[in-house]
Amino acid sequence: MNIRVGAIVVCCFLMVSCVSLKTPKRTDLVKLNVPAKIGHYPVRIERVIKENGKTLNHTTVIWYHFKNSGGPDSSELKQATHIALELIDDKHLKAGLYNGDVLLKSNVLKGKLKNGYFRRKAMTEFMGVPPIYWSVTSTKMQLGVGPNEVLYIDHATETNGGILIMMAGTPGSTHSLAIPALK
Fold first, then answer.
1. How many CB atoms lie within 10 A of CB 38?
2. Which of 42, 119, 120, 144 could cross-link to 152 by cystine, CB 3.0-4.6 Å?
3. Phi, psi (5° rounding) for residue 120?
4. What b/e string do you get for 98-131 counting C-beta neighbours within 10 Å, with b at 16 or more?
5. Which is more confident, 72 or 165?
6. What is the 3-state secondary structure of 98-133?
7. What is the distance in angstroms between the CA of the first residue and the CA of the last residue of the chain?
8. Which contiguous run of DSSP H or E holds residue 14?
9. Cα dihedral sign for 28, 19, 68, 102?
């Protein structure tokens, strides 16, 4: 019995998400100094996406890239006017959600500086009860700053899982955002 459980656990870990975060070749990144205030940015941005020949307006909530926990922040997001980012040291980034000068919520992200980017520590979330049902989601994020304090966010996520003996996964998704600073 222990061998079966061990084999199932090994199979689950073999299917763990290992999403790859592609780093765009940006030559205009500003060197991030430690400690430093990075800037103030909008809480959400409107993007135009073309999908299946249709043009769609899509709202992207920037704050979600800086959260450490799941679940909505609806009451804070409704009041929020901007996000302030501050590099505390070479391994910690502080993100604050503000309404004017009043701090509504703050998170400290763990990561590291690499090639002009702050790369957040990869987040892995496991759900379910192996071998009946399980899923593993892997999320990676990095940010860099360009001229005029433009914030570049590169984000990747992937989910793999299984039901009984059938396993499946997503091809993963990546996206990059360029967010102008608020003046």
1. 23
2. 144
3. -70, 145
4. beeeeebbeeebebebeebbbbbeeeeeeeeeeb
5. 165
6. EECCEEEEEEEEEEEEECCEEEECCEEEEEEECCCE
7. 63
8. helix 2-14
9. positive
Unique residue bearing structure tokens 């009041």: 79
User: What type of residue sits at position 12?
Assistant: C
160: exposed, middle or buried (Cβ count in 10 Å: 0-12, 13-18, 19+): buried
Rounded average pLDDT over 95-120: 93
Task: Read off the amino acid at residue 172.
Answer: G
Parse the chain into domains and list their residue ranges.
2-179
Give percent above pLDDT 90 in the chain.
38
Distance of CA 14 to CAs 8, 27, 127, Å? 10, 37, 15
Instruction: Say if residues 15 and 139 touch (Cβ distance below 8 Å).
Output: no
CB 45 within 8 A of CB 160: no
Where does 15-132 show beta strands of DSSP type E?
Answer: 36-41, 44-51, 54-61, 82-89, 92-99, 102-114, 117-120, 123-129
- Residue 48: pLDDT band (50, 70, 90) is confident
